[in-house]
Amino acid sequence: MKPDSRPLPVCAQAGPYAVPVVEGQRYRWCSCGLSKTQPWCDDAHVGTPFVPVEFEAPLSAEFFMCGCKRSENPPYCFGTCRGHSRSSQGGSRA
Ligand code: FES
Fold first, then answer.
1. DSSP code at position 15
2. Which atom, in ligand 1's list, is nearest to the CA of 35?
3. Do residues 69 and 49 lie in contact, with contact meaning Cβ atoms separated by under 8 Å?
4. Radius of gyration (Cα) for the chain, nearest Å?
5. pTM of the predicted protein model
6. What is the pLDDT of residues 5-17, one digit of tens each?
7. What are the pLDDT digits (tens) for 47-71?
8. Contacts of 22 (CB under 8 A, 6+ apart)
9. I need a labelling partner for 63 at 20 to 30 A (CA). Which of 20, 22, 75, 91 fits?
């Protein structure tokens, strides 16, 4: 298997950002980890291979946005910061 040579984003926070979002409003989630306005993009990614992930809030609520930038389901926290992954699901609980 060929090693993955893609650059890794900066881990902005080892845990999610709990933020209020407004239904129908569009947001740009920072995927590079460099933004000073986490979890949202402030264009600090310019010049890097990263681009923000755009999404429209489906409802008004508090959302848990990925802070480690390694979620398998960005922009949402998927527990990757706590060692969860899709490949580790379905097995026994250790
Ligand atoms: S600042 Fe990180 S993706 Fe824009």
1. S
2. 1
3. no
4. 14
5. 0.82
6. 778 999 999 999 9
7. 999 999 999 999 999 999 999 999 9
8. 57, 60
9. 91
